[in-house]
């Protein structure tokens, strides 16, 4: 029997989550929910849209799961807020793992979404409320704490420790045995070779603009 799922959110991430769950016969999306100030109609994406404040009256938690489809705003703390509010209402929070990923660990928390083409090696530990977009490598014995967001094509080498509320941008690379402290922003293309400190921000050097236009450059 498929699992009945409510998706929290009305943005593009929620729409993407819907796409993946609709392709998977294990899940049956039945409704969307959001706080009352974001509910401007009775439906969204062809499904009922119900205010979160009273969602349990329409779709009770004893036979429905929920996924909090909020991105990395405010270093994942908005998603964290509704993660706990949904649990207070009694909902079990869904973790989705794409069947097109190689996941060699069972230590994965709730409200995680692991997209396709990820390689997660043995002895990795992934906390609660972690989003792992497509095409990443997470090396053996690494720890990803709660409320993190890993974008695409990130390399986390073996024995790393990514602490909570961290954002890892596209093509970021973390050297083996490195600790990335809480509330770090690791920008696209950044190479982290040593331990960081809390609330640090790293950005890689941007590409330089060549002084000639493309019609005057020979490839």
From TrEMBL:
Domain PglD N-terminal residue range list: 4-83
Entry annotated with the keyword Transferase: yes
Source taxonomy: Bacteria, Pseudomonadati, Thermodesulfobacteriota, Thermodesulfobacteria, Thermodesulfobacteriales
PANTHER family for the chain: ACETYLTRANSFERASE (PTHR43300), ACYL-[ACYL-CARRIER-PROTEIN]--UDP-N-ACETYLGLUCOSAMINE O-ACYLTRANSFERASE (PTHR43300:SF4)
Domain Mannose-1-phosphate guanyltransferase C-terminal: 105-187
One Pfam match: PglD_N
Family per record: Belongs to the transferase hexapeptide repeat family.
GO molecular function annotations of the record: transferase activity
Record key words, sorted: Transferase
Organism listed in the record: Thermosulfuriphilus ammonigenes
Name of protein: Acetyltransferase
């Amino acid at each position: 029997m498929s699992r009945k799922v409510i998706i929290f959110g009305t943005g593009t991430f929620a729409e993407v989550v819907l796409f993946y769950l609709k392709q998977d016969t294990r899940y049956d999306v039945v409704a969307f929910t959001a706080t009352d100030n974001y509910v401007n109609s009775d439906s969204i994406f062809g499904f009922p849209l119900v205010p979160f404040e009273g969602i349990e009256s329409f779709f009770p938690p004893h036979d429905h799961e929920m996924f909090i489809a909020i991105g990395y705003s405010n270093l994942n703390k908005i998603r964290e807020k509704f993660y706990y509010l949904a649990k207070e209402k009694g909902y079990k929070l869904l973790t989705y793992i794409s069947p097109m990923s190689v996941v060699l660990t069972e230590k994965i928390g709730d409200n995680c979404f692991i997209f396709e083409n990820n390689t997660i090696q043995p002895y990795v530990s992934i906390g609660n409320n972690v989003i792992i977009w497509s095409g990443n490598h997470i090396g053996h014995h690494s720890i990803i704490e709660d409320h993190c967001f890993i974008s695409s094509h990130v390399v986390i080498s073996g024995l790393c420790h990514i602490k909570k509320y961290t954002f890892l941008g596209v093509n970021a690379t973390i050297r083996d045995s490195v600790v990335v402290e809480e509330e770090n922003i690791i920008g696209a293309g950044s190479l982290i070779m040593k331990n960081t400190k809390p609330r640090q921000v790293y950005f890689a050097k941007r590409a330089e603009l060549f002084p000639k236009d493309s019609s005057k450059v020979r490839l």
